[in-house]
Design goal:
Blueprint (H helix, E strand, L loop, with lengths): L7 E4 L5 E2 L3 E9 L7 E8 L3 H19 L3 H4 L3 H16 L1 H6 L1
Helix pairs in contact: 1-3
Length: about 100
């Protein structure tokens, strides 16, 4: 509806942290001119991170499938390792998880 979003948001230009999928900025927001500013942290995803992650996981999966052709390496279960890594990366890309914390 738009009513739940801040009217004014001001962010510091320099990130306070940067990670694999995004950066975190400090800032303040006000819901109205009369309201006091509230300190906030805003996480912004790196440009194209979802597409880049999908491509990387596809390539890792192809490499893992190739490794499984060699019987001495099959016990490592490379495809399952890539699946677990992919799940962790998708979890980081889901900012609603951050929102719920």
């Amino acid at each position: 509806s738009g009513g739940d979003y801040p009217t004014w948001l001001s962010l510091n230009q320099n990130p306070v942290n940067s990670g694999a999928v995004g950066q975190v900025y400090r800032g303040t927001m006000q819901r109205s001119e009369d309201a006091s500013p509230v300190a906030v942290a805003v996480k912004v995803l790196h440009p194209n991170i979802r597409l880049d992650t999908d491509i990387d996981l596809f390539l890792l999966g192809a490499g893992a499938s190739f490794l499984e052709l060699f019987p001495p390496l099959k016990w490592l279960d490379p495809r399952q390792s890539v699946e677990h890594f992919g799940d962790a990366m998708r979890h980081q890309l889901n900012l609603m998880v951050e929102h719920e914390n």
